[in-house]
């Protein structure tokens, strides 16, 4: 019985799950909630400020990033559908610190990319 409880506890504290939580965009006005479903990670828009709505077309509760997989170091293989343009882009997430993630968005090859840092926010 103790072994089973230990096994369940270990499963709940997977390194990949460090990504779960609320993350704030660099502008500090909009944020996403990252959650896990079926072994994949998703980012749902949690809060939208005027700049996020106007510049990027963010809509509260919409899924921004889909299907990230953790490979032991980074979360990759995800897709971001740009809310304003509808363009499908590749997404990769690294966690250099427990309170920050680096999100890399690119189309085709990684050489042409956009990187931004998001900070962890206490869920409200």
**Helicity range:** 10-25%
Radius of gyration over C-alpha positions, nearest whole angstrom: 15 Å
Percentage beta strand = over 45%
Question: Which sheet architecture does the biggest sheet show?
Answer: 8 strands, antiparallel, barrel
Low-confidence stretches: 1-12
**N-to-C SSE series?**
HEEEHEEEEE
Could you explain how this protein is built, in words?
The protein is mainly beta and 124 residues long. Helices cover 15% and strands 48% of the residues. The chain is built from two helices and eight strands. Strands 1-2-3-4-5-6-7-8 form an eight-stranded antiparallel beta barrel. A hairpin with a 2-residue loop joins β2 and β3. The N terminus is likely disordered.
Provide the fold topology.
Layout: H1 2-12, E1 21-24, E2 31-37, E3 40-47, H2 50-56, E4 63-70, E5 75-81, E6 88-97, E7 100-106, E8 113-121
Antiparallel strand pairs: 1-2, 1-8, 2-3, 3-4, 4-5, 5-6, 6-7, 7-8
Question: Brief overview, please?
Answer:
With 124 residues, the chain is mainly β.
Features:
124 residues, mainly beta, eight-stranded antiparallel barrel
